[in-house]
Amino acid sequence: MDQTLESKLKGLMSVFLEENSKINLSAYRTEEACWIGNILDSLAFLELSFVSPPFPRLPSEAWAKEGTGEGLGVRALDLGTGGGFPLLPLAIALPEYQFTGIDATQKKIAAVNRIIERQNITNARALPGRAEDLGRDPLHREKYDIVLSRGLAKLSTLLEYCAPFAKTGGKIVLWKSLNILEELAESAPAEKELRCRLLLQHRYALPGDFGERQLLVFEKGAPIPKKYPRGVGIPSKNPLL
Ligand code: SAH
Question: Which pLDDT score is estimated for 59?
Fold first, then answer.
């Protein structure tokens, strides 16, 4: 890993662990667990071939102030970002991207914003809100080139949360364990209804006991019906099956 990148990520880890000792953001409480389980796991995204630069350098401070980012290069959304994963390591590793993180829990978003300020991560912002509400908001609907999510929900629910935010032709990248055969089979109706096609499954290995995991990459092929996402709580209680 590039030394400047590594030292920025170490800085992120130490500020994150400090926040994590005050409010519960992640079960990975030691440096080693946080480095592998949160930071390296987030960076698996960099192994996907379509992620690689060059992208134009962006006026990221202006973006952060205006908050819309329209027309300014690759826009990525992290849904259910929690304490900021994969949002924060990826914002540091990909300065050419503009990142938005969303989470339903206000106090987690407040912690992520404190970390963003302390580490001066100018290409990331974190907003409180639920996927079911913000997915209908014209400021966010169909506005993102890439939608990311780790640890949020089962696939059929997750596609209903993510698809409304993706542009047509945009990608949805989901962090998953390897044993998801049943989840994948069950998600076929949601994929069809939400115009999402599974492009690839990327397996990767983390050091030590963390083992193998995978990224699922979907492409959104067309706009989706206005009725999605359904109201708060419905995609998880009553997934499209
Ligand atoms: N992505 C982080 C956190 C995963 S925990 C990580 O991998 O470490 C799941 C997070 O999703 C929680 O922080 C929870 O508050 C949030 N969440 C759950 N349902 C949500 C919804 N419908 N909309 C937005 N956020 C939601």
Answer: 45
140: closest CA among 232, 76, 58?
A: 76
Indicate whether this model's pTM tops 0.85. yes
Testing ligand 1's pocket by substitution, the residue of 152, 157, 237 carrying the most ligand atoms inside 8 A of its CB is 152
Whether the CB-CB separation of 211 and 192 falls below 8 Å is answered with no
Which residue do the tokens 């990520």 mark?
9
Specify whether the CB–CB gap between 220 and 147 falls below 8 A.
Answer: no
- Express each pLDDT in 193-228 by its tens digit: 999 999 999 999 999 999 999 999 999 999 999 999
Q: Closest residue (by CA) to atom 1 of ligand 1?
A: 81
Identify the residues whose C-beta falls under 6 Å from ligand 1: 26, 80-83, 85, 102-105, 108, 130-132, 150-152
Low-confidence ranges of the chain (pLDDT < 50): 54-71
Reduced to 3 states (helix: H, G, I; strand: E, B; else coil), residue 168 is: strand
Please give the Cα distance from 35 to 15 (Å, whole number): 12
